[in-house]
C-alpha cells in the first residue's frame, strides 16, 4: 500500500505491505517517510535562487559592477540538454563568451559616475581594419540584409572579437520594471569608426561618394544560393564586388551605408544603439539585451538571444 499525506506543505509517504481494503488495515501501522517541503513550489519561488539587488538607486551606481565579467547568453531556439536546461548561444567561431569590462570613474571626473569600459562578443581579438575589406572579415553582413527590419535603418549583429565601447545611451525612467536596472549601451556601428577612414571615397555616379563599389546599381548574390554581386557603372558596364562590402556601402535603408563619404574621405555614421540591462544576483550579474539582434547558423534572420549571466573573473 502507498499513501501520500499532505500537511502544511509537507509530503509524507506511507509505505506498507499489500493490504486489501476489506481487511481493515490500520493506517498507524504504516511506515512514514518525509519527502520534503512543497511551499516553494506553491509560491513559485526557487529556494536556491539568490535574491536580486539593484545596481542603480537614484543616480547612485553600485561599485560592485566594476571589474571583468565573463558570461554567456541563452539560446532560446536551441535544443535543451538532458536536464532540460537551454544551451548557450554560440558565435560563428564556436565561442559562447561575452566579456564585459567596466570601471567606475573617480569622483568628479568628466565621465561622471557612469561605468566606462568595453563589451566583447565571442573569443579572440578582431583583426585590424583594412581598405576595401569588410570588417571584421568573414562577418556575414549580406545574408541577413534581406530579412532585416525595413525602414528603421541598418541593423547589424555584433561583430565578433570587436571591443564595443560602452556608453550611457539612455537613463531609465523610474518605474516598477526599470527600478534598479542599469542599462549599458553600445553603438552597433562602432566597429566602423576605425574602418571607414581607411576606405577610399568612390564616386557613386550621382554626384556623391561612397565607401566602395556597390552603393549604386548593386545587384546579384541572392541567397540561399549566392550569385556573384555586381555593381553597374554609369555607362552600363558591370564589375564584380564583394557582397559584404556592397552591403555596408549601400545607401538603401534596409542595408548599410555605414560610412559618410565626400571627396576628401570617409567617416563612420552613428548607428543604432543597443542596450544591455543589468541587475545583481548574488555574486553574479544577469541581464537582457534590448535593441540587439544576433545571427544564427543556417538562418538568414537576425534574432534575439535570451538572458545573460556574467561571473566575475577579475576585480
Topology at a glance:
Layout: E1 2-7, E2 10-15, E3 31-37, H1 39-43, E4 52-53, E5 56-57, E6 60-61, E7 67-73, E8 98-103, E9 116-121, E10 163-165, E11 182-187, E12 202-203, E13 209-210, E14 218-220, E15 229-232, E16 238-240, H2 243-249, E17 259-262, E18 265-268, E19 273-281, E20 284-290, E21 294-295, E22 302-303, E23 308-314
Antiparallel strand pairs: 1-2, 2-3, 4-19, 5-6, 7-8, 7-23, 8-9, 9-10, 11-19, 12-13, 14-15, 15-16, 17-18, 19-20, 20-23, 21-22
* Biggest sheet character: 9 strands, antiparallel
In round numbers, the mean pLDDT is 76
Order of helices and strands: EEEHEEEEEEEEEEEEEHEEEEEEE
Structural class: mainly beta
Q: Class of the domain at 57-125 and 161-188 and 271-314 in CATH?
A: Mainly Beta
Sheet-strand content, in percent, reads 25-35%
Percent helix range? under 10%
The CATH topology label of the domain at 57-125 and 161-188 and 271-314 is Lipocalin
CATH architecture assignment of the domain at 57-125 and 161-188 and 271-314: Beta Barrel
Question: What can you see in these coordinates?
Answer:
This protein has 315 residues and is mostly beta strands. Among the domains are: 2-43, no CATH class; 57-125 and 161-188 and 271-314, Beta Barrel (Lipocalin). It is 4% helix and 32% strand. The protein is built from two helices and 23 strands. It has helices spanning 39-43, 243-249; strands at residues 2-7, 10-15, 31-37, 52-53, 56-57, 60-61, 67-73, 98-103, 116-121, 163-165, 182-187, 202-203, 209-210, 218-220, 229-232, 238-240, 259-262, 265-268, 273-281, 284-290, 294-295, 302-303, 308-314. The strands form seven sheets. Strands 4, 7, 8, 9, 10, 11, 19, 20 and 23 form a nine-stranded antiparallel beta sheet that branches. Strand 21 and strand 22 form a beta hairpin. The model is unreliable at 1-27 and 29-48 (pLDDT under 50).
